[in-house]
Amino acid sequence: MTAPLGVFDSGLGGLTVVHALTEALPSEPIVYLGDTARVPYGTRSAETVVRYARGCAGVLTARGVKALVIACNTVSAVAVEILRAELDLPVIGVVEPGARAAVAAAEAETARRGHPVKIGVLGTQGTINSGAYPRAVSQLSTRLEVVGQAAPLLVPLVEEGWIEGQVPELAVRRYLEPLLAQGAGVLVLGCTHYPLLAPIIARVAEELAGHPVPIVDSAHATATEVAQLIAAGRIAPGSVGPRLEVLVTDRPRSFAEVASLFLGERAPEVTQIDL
Amino acid sequence: MTAPLGVFDSGLGGLTVVHALTEALPSEPIVYLGDTARVPYGTRSAETVVRYARGCAGVLTARGVKALVIACNTVSAVAVEILRAELDLPVIGVVEPGARAAVAAAEAETARRGHPVKIGVLGTQGTINSGAYPRAVSQLSTRLEVVGQAAPLLVPLVEEGWIEGQVPELAVRRYLEPLLAQGAGVLVLGCTHYPLLAPIIARVAEELAGHPVPIVDSAHATATEVAQLIAAGRIAPGSVGPRLEVLVTDRPRSFAEVASLFLGERAPEVTQIDL
Question: What domains can you pick out in chain A, each with its CATH number?
Fold first, then answer.
């Protein structure tokens, strides 16, 4: 039997990465862990996030996963190097692939607009404070500037299912105004919850900028990176067809209900574990 | 030396109870524990909340507190009986005092309006799901009806400091409309974060009802209950003057900064502990 890919997140949001992985790699089995008993990570200290990330990685490596995908921007921002140093398997975060996609989008947009545009990052407090996106972009381009904006209300809005109407629109406007005022010409959705707000983010950004603003979703960039590692022989290919096992640390039933919103298909089987 | 009162909460919100306690009982020393590494509790399962509550209670009893005040509605709603059965000291939750104050307010309002009014409870998902307020009210009055509304966005709004303007007002309106439509004539702020939104809640409720709606804050009702237990000799009185020790499980510095907002005075000393 082929070993699965291990994917973990603080909660539900990482299922956007699972969705992108199953589309890009339909024969890969996946074990997903959502740490719903301790969600959200984005407001916690780096030290605590690292401790929680080690716990999640331990559960998945004990299940024999062949690679670890960190589907959480906050964990990717503060713990990816630590987990790489401590674990003997490929560890893929969402920040580096997201930064790569953002650089490509910003270069295309700079050419289109005829003047340099900056990369704007929306993220949790933990992701923005870490400086992980500016750091990752600076390793790919010395010319591109990055501006960041913490958007702490967007995760609760998505978790509440409040993704349309005046309240999310006002919240998104408040977070986008300073980014666009600082010259952001492309936007990175630097948290796995935000793709569910992408329609509002695109509409408000276009209204504020006076033209469409390209939006980079790191879930797809991450799935592409995993596919490339498999193609390059650095991760063994799977062959059992799509199979998803879901573990959570709290509320398995409500997780299963909301999961279909993220996966665009029927609710998966969900098992509760202690962590 | 006098043993302190132990007070715990999932995070910051319980400081509204500490504030009420220091006003009602200025000579009582207090140890406060905020479980900021696992906040919020209000969205978690009852089983997980009980597990976390046992951990918090263990830290405080190990410090020799003379009584335990659960300054969190969610924990009070699902774990107060369990902690009472397991611990050998007085355990005071916020739900029973809040229900008592709500019954008194509803009876007064019923007399004033000349028709029966219901008690409306705003709370977290965990508190509303538990049915703790209807249960506590039914032990005090067989006539009064209770209607509840989960208001999950209010905690993130307060934690973000977004307590004025259009977004909190729209969120409050959305939660109050169904309560008032069902006949709520008094409102219980069934979460320790909500007192910071009390001005908006009062304004929106008055606008929807066409007259002022009495608002019950369980922090003060709880402080009064503790004072009565001390007066009745069931908790030994303290005599060292106000002294507050604060323990948190994550981010002690940002906790100290926001704490002054809740306490109305300068930031306390905050120590980080593991849990």
Answer: 5-93+220-272 (3.40.50.1860), 96-218 (3.40.50.1860)
Q: pLDDT-derived band of residue A1, with 50, 70 and 90 as boundaries?
A: low
Q: Judge contact between A136 and A99, C-beta under 8 A.
A: yes
DSSP secondary structure string, B46-94?
A: HHHHHHHHHHHHHHHHHTT-SEEEE--HHHHHHHHHHHHHH-SS-EE-S
The pLDDT score that the predictor gives to residue B1 is 58
Mean pLDDT score of chain B:
94
User: Are B167 and A170 inside 8 Å of each other by CB?
Assistant: yes
Shortest distance between the Cα of A12 and any Cα of chain B, in A, equals: 13
Query: What phi and psi values does residue A222 have, to the nearest 5 degrees?
Result: -70, -45
What is the model's pLDDT at position B275? Answer: 86
Per-residue pLDDT tens for B137-181?
A: 999 999 999 999 999 999 989 888 889 999 999 999 999 999 999
Task: Report d(CA B100, CA B85) in Å as an integer.
Answer: 22
Burial class of residue A197 in the structure, from the number of CB atoms within 10 Å of its CB (0-12 exposed, 13-18 middle, 19+ buried) = buried
Mean pLDDT across chain A, nearest whole number? 93
Q: Which of B99, B150, B191, B226 is catalytic?
A: B191
| pLDDT value, residue B194 | 93
The 3-state DSSP class for residue B270 equals strand
* Nearest-angstrom CA–CA distance, A270 and A268: 6
Q: Is the pLDDT of residue A267 over 80?
A: no
Question: Does residue B14 contact residue B155 with C-beta atoms inside 8 Å?
Answer: no
Whether A190 and A123 have beta carbons less than 8 Å apart is answered as: yes
Name the minimum distance, in Å, from the CA of A113 to any CA of chain B: 34
Q: What is the 3 state secondary structure string of B184-241?
A: EEEEEEECCCHHHHHHHHHHHHHHHHCCCCCEEEHHHHHHHHHHHHHHCCCCCCCCCC
Subunit contact A45:B171, Cβ cutoff 8 A? no
Q: What is the pTM of this model?
A: 0.88
| Residue with the two structure tokens 């909460």 | B9
CA–CA dist A122, B240 (Å, integer): 49
State which amino acid sits at residue A123: G
Would you say B192 and B127 are in contact if contact means Cβ atoms under 8 Å apart?
no
The four Cα atoms A66, A123, B155, B29 give a dihedral, to 10 degrees, of 80
> Is the ipTM of this structure higher than 0.90?
no
Q: Could you tell me the two tokens for A263?
A: 């996966």
b/e map of A54-81 (b: 16 or more CB within 10 Å)? eebbebbbeeebbbbbbbbbbbbbbbbe
Known active-site residue A191: yes
pLDDT value of position A108 = 97
- Whether B251 and chain A come into contact, CB under 8 Å, resolves to yes
d(CA A139, CA A137): 5
